[in-house]
From TrEMBL:
Keywords linked to the UniProt accession: Cell membrane, Membrane, Transmembrane, Transmembrane helix, Transport
Protein topology in the membrane: Multi-pass membrane protein
Similarity remark: Belongs to the binding-protein-dependent transport system permease family.
Annotated protein name in UniProt: Sugar ABC transporter permease
Location of the ABC transmembrane type-1 domain: 77-294
Keyword Transmembrane helix: yes
Transmembrane segments: 20-46, 81-103, 115-142, 162-182, 218-238, 273-294
Location in the cell: Cell membrane
Predominant subcellular localization, coarse grouping: membrane
Lineage of source species: Bacteria, Bacillati, Bacillota, Bacilli, Lactobacillales
Amino acid sequence: MEISKSKKTKAQRQEISQAWIFLAPAIIVVSIFFVLAVLFAVYLSFNDVNLFTNTYTFKGIDNYLRIFQDKKALIAMKNTATFAFIVVPLQTIFALVIAYILSNKGIKGKKLFRMIYFLPTLTSSSALTIIFMFIFNIYGPVNDFFMSLGLYSEPINFLQEPAYALKVIMVMNIWSTVPYYMTIYLASLVDLPETLYEAAAIDGATAVDKLRYITIPYLRPITTYVLLTGIIGTFQMFDQAYIFSNGSGGPNNSTLTISLMIYQYAFGQMNTMGYAAALAIVLAVIIFVASRFAEKLNSER
């Protein structure tokens, strides 16, 4: 028995050694481009940094205190939170409902619909932003359509009105992300046992009952994934706001997000890289807390 045990231990050691050899390149890359980068960002957040002279002046927590005294930063946090807490639930609900409808075997042409509907996901967000800027232009098709219905007499400048600018980006983000999450839900619904629906039908359950008591609980792990990736993506929203406002966050800071503000301070102003790093750290903490809250809330349902 002792010989067998020693041989088994030796084999396990060889497997562990081989595993470390294969993992080493990935660990090195992650350490250099993620762990060290994060640690360096934390270091920068406690300093005033001049990249041209490569000088660092220690400021302690001044950069973090400045965030909560900066009205522009508070506006960016509000915009980002509003964007996330509207887009994430809506894109999750729409993706689930559409996937549930398309999972019905009686629907014809659903393969063609899925292929066409998935195309926005394959298009770059930059191209989609430009397209939506044309659609919602003051002379664009959206204004023409609503005016033809007589809903208002003069066109609305969606791109320059603070009340509408961020909402346009929300609509674009929901429209472009729902197909991706719908596909994930559809892939999971394929594995859902038909016997559950058959038993529910015998008990007199309606389509809504099946969705509420069978489909949604079964898809809870997938919903957690959708919520987490949605929260991370929306809190990091940058390119749409940058293109939409030409990097300014306008009109009147209505499209200013934390990520866009980080970019402005990191590369648009002198000696503010430390403040930008502090904003990035705060954003990372916010994303972590929001993700954990969403994960816990979904697991307790």
